[in-house]
Amino acid sequence: MKALIYNEHGGPEKLIKTEVPDPVIAADEVLVAVVATSVNRADLLQLRGRYPGYERTGSILGLDLSGTVIEVGSEVSDLEVGDPVCALVDGGGYAQLAAVPAAMCLKLPANMSFTKAAALPEVFTVAYQCFDWLAQLTAGQSVLIHAGASGVGTAMVQYAKQKGARVFVTASAPKHAQLYDLGAEVCIDYKSEEFDEIVMSHTGGKGVDVLVDFIGGPYSKQNINTIAVDGTGIMLSQMGGRYAEEYDMSPILMKRLTIVGSTLRNRSDEYKRKLTADLRTHAWPLFGEGKLFALVDTIFDWDDARSALEYMESNANVGKIVITIGD
């Protein structure tokens, strides 16, 4: 099969298309003819040598994929050849074929395109993990989502709104209109506004029940100030840096805050399969009902995958960037 790989670490220019061996499926896996994959920030980090890959997929990037099942392992009973699926994978999406654990596959609802489906698994699995497993978000609560226009951010806005929460987001001003359309109640321009002040003014000084952060160090002090009593802060990334300025940590104690650091890619197979099973039961039906959907910003052909990665680096997208896999 053909795949996009890299032979040395660096930027998007290091990606090359070449022939690699076809994957061989295990008894509990299916072989998927990949139609589309999506770009995740982890792809850029792995490419630059800042995020480890997996031995099986090696230098083939891609954490989401969609396509058609063309072979079924001997222990698989709930999928058949010809089924359209999407899946969260440990890598391998930037290729024509992928071996995928059947437990990680989600059958596509009627009329869902492969390009839309490729934009779903990673971002909505993370959203479900945060709001159902970690924060146990309930109707009437409030949530602040940093980087709200990212792929994960736009999924979180939708899912939090669907759960009946008040949704606050930070994003650059040109992206606010789309976020309001997704269900955000208050959009904050992180370039010109102080998000803690605005959140407090809209919550009567209470703060938010749940805060999701991708920025890290520079936001630490404001984050602690913004979370309500008995609230939860979830850190998913540190795009702004690892280190925080000196600040008073007493609010963590006095407000009885729960601060959670979470990842997904390096979780165990058992964890990810259980999480996918829960999402399949509790959230996946919402896509068939039209209550949740993939927000795709731009679609690139895989011959232009370098441009797709460069576009992600520019932070210009609202929603997901998708790559179609061809000949």
TrEMBL record:
Name of the protein described by the UniProt record: PIG3 family NAD(P)H quinone oxidoreductase
Pfam families listed in its UniProt record: ADH_N, ADH_zinc_N
Gene3D superfamilies given in the database record: Medium-chain alcohol dehydrogenases, catalytic domain, NAD(P)-binding Rossmann-like Domain
Enoyl reductase (ER) domain segment(s): 10-323
Highest taxon, organism lineage: Bacteria
Annotated source species: Neolewinella antarctica
Keywords, in A-Z order: NADP, Oxidoreductase
